């Protein structure tokens, strides 16, 4: 149903109801003013044009009101995180009470492990997928060490089989069959940052729970990309960042999900701060800690409004496009990319991302045998912004908010040229 031609790509763009959203973003340009082919939303999402207005509003309120801005600003700062909750909850398929924007991803991961990783003498191990993102691996190892557990003993890797790139669900089943009663926590990055594999969240969660484990997900590459349906799928917690697919600016704040079943459980251990305390008595200052129900109860600090306002600008853009529409376009864009890459008919190329759209987001991880980083450099010189992962993989992520079918077409043409 796809054709390998520029006309075809243009026709797809012309009939795309989301095509106009591209104009709502700043697209980086080359030195002659041409749009670069930006396929790197998995690393840093582009800036919505409205972001600067939203930030200016906060700066103006701060100038006009000083401290009174907490209550007097048009978007008062005191409850500012609440303006983000509804859309963020929609994006990850959660109830609003289950979601909060706070801190950054790795910080939230630690906070969640403080609560949901409670090792005992016999149940103390953590399962992660073997090629977890380095920060996640460091965080998990440090949690094990914090509890005086040697990571060599405490960490179980869910690995792809010899000669394969992707993790198979059967092998997760086997791990749990063999070690289920020793596992305290399952922590999986979905979508995997390297292969682009999206794991079956519900199946992983149900099986983990059946074996008495807590289950959490790192959605750094999932949030704003796939629909993780967190409430229905039922993991205990999830964490994500907002600077990748959620276009909220470099190093912007992260998101955190705590399932409703834990919302009012005050027996859960946690590291706390005043922002997680009952809103009505927070400023009385002398009360015993009284956790807010739901995910908000894990907040620590008075948050950075300037970062949150960039998230609000981005979420307003998501809400206007509609997440279901975005996901539909995303599947089409990536299928088109896959078709064009296959049509290069180049034996050096191997797409390691799953072929089934249900098992991936927008990213394709394209392995180019015997290539090195020069390939990436040449692509960059050809006006393609992509991302290189050693030893031989380019990650290409066409995002439905600002990428076009034409972008995808030009990318494969330029890849072809560089490879020859
Ligand atoms: C991007 C990414 C991170 C980054 O964590 P920060 O705390 O935001 O720096 C962590 N984990 C995964 C899986 C990522 O993809």
From TrEMBL:
Residues reported to bind pyridoxal 5'-phosphate: 105-106, 133-136, 218, 221, 243, 274, 302
UniProt pathway annotation: Cofactor biosynthesis; NAD(+) biosynthesis; quinolinate from L-kynurenine: step 2/3; Amino-acid degradation; L-kynurenine degradation; L-alanine and anthranilate from L-kynurenine: step 1/1
One GO cellular component term: cytoplasm
Key words of the record: Hydrolase, Pyridine nucleotide biosynthesis, Pyridoxal phosphate
Keyword Cell membrane: no
Name of the top EC class for this enzyme: hydrolase
Swiss-Prot/TrEMBL cofactor(s): pyridoxal 5'-phosphate
EC number: 3.7.1.3
Any Pfam family hit: KYNU_C
Positions of post-translational N6-(pyridoxal phosphate)lysine modification: 244
Reaction catalyzed: 3-hydroxy-L-kynurenine + H2O = 3-hydroxyanthranilate + L-alanine + H(+); L-kynurenine + H2O = anthranilate + L-alanine + H(+)
InterPro entries reported in the protein's UniProt record: Kynureninase, PyrdxlP-dep_Trfase, PyrdxlP-dep_Trfase_major, PyrdxlP-dep_Trfase_small
One Gene Ontology biological process: quinolinate biosynthetic process
Matching NCBIfam families: kynureninase
Function: Catalyzes the cleavage of L-kynurenine (L-Kyn) and L-3-hydroxykynurenine (L-3OHKyn) into anthranilic acid (AA) and 3-hydroxyanthranilic acid (3-OHAA), respectively.
Entry protein name: Kynureninase
Organism: Ulvibacter litoralis
UniProt lineage: Bacteria, Pseudomonadati, Bacteroidota, Flavobacteriia, Flavobacteriales
């Amino acid at each position: 149903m796809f054709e390998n031609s520029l006309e075809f790509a243009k026709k797809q763009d012309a009939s795309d109801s989301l095509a106009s959203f591209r104009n709502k973003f700043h697209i980086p340009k080359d030195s002659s003013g041409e749009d670069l082919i930006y396929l790197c939303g998995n690393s840093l999402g582009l800036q919505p044009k409205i972001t600067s207005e939203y930030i200016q509003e906060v700066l103006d309120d701060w100038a006009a009101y000083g401290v009174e801005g907490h209550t007097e600003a048009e978007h008062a700062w005191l409850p500012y995180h609440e303006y983000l909750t509804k859309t963020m909850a929609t994006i990850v398929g959660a109830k609003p009470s289950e979601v909060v924007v706070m801190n950054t991803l790795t910080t939230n991961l630690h906070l969640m492990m403080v609560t949901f990783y409670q090792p005992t003498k016999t149940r103390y191990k953590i399962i992660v997928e073997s090629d977890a993102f380095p920060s996640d691996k460091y965080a998990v190892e440090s949690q094990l060490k914090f509890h005086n557990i040697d990571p060599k003993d405490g960490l179980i890797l869910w690995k792809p089989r010899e000669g394969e790139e992707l993790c198979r669900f059967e092998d997760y089943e086997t791990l749990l069959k063999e070690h289920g009663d020793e596992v305290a926590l399952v922590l999986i990055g979905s979508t995997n940052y390297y292969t682009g594999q999206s794991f079956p969240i519900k199946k992983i969660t149900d099986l983990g729970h059946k074996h008495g484990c807590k289950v959490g997900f790192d959605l750094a590459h999932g949030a704003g990309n796939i629909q993780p349906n967190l409430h229905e799928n039922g993991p205990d917690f999830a964490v994500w960042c907002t600077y990748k697919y959620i276009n909220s600016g470099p190093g912007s704040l992260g998101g955190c999900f705590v399932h409703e079943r834990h919302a009012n459980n005050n027996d859960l251990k946690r590291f706390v701060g005043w922002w997680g305390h009952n809103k009505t008595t927070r400023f009385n200052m002398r009360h015993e800690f009284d956790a807010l129900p739901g995910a908000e109860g894990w907040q620590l600090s008075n948050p950075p409004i300037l970062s949150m306002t960039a998230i609000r600008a981005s979420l307003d853009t998501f809400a206007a496009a509609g997440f279901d529409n975005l996901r539909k376009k995303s599947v089409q864009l990536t299928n088109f990319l896959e078709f064009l890459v296959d049509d290069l008919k180049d034996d050096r190329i191997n797409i390691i991302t799953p072929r089934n759209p249900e098992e991936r987001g927008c990213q394709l991880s394209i392995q180019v045998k015997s290539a090195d980083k020069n390939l990436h450099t040449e692509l960059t010189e050809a006006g393609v912004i992509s991302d290189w992962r050693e030893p031989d993989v380019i990650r290409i992520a066409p995002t439905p908010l600002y990428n076009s079918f034409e972008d995808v077409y030009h990318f494969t043409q330029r890849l072809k040229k560089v490879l020859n």
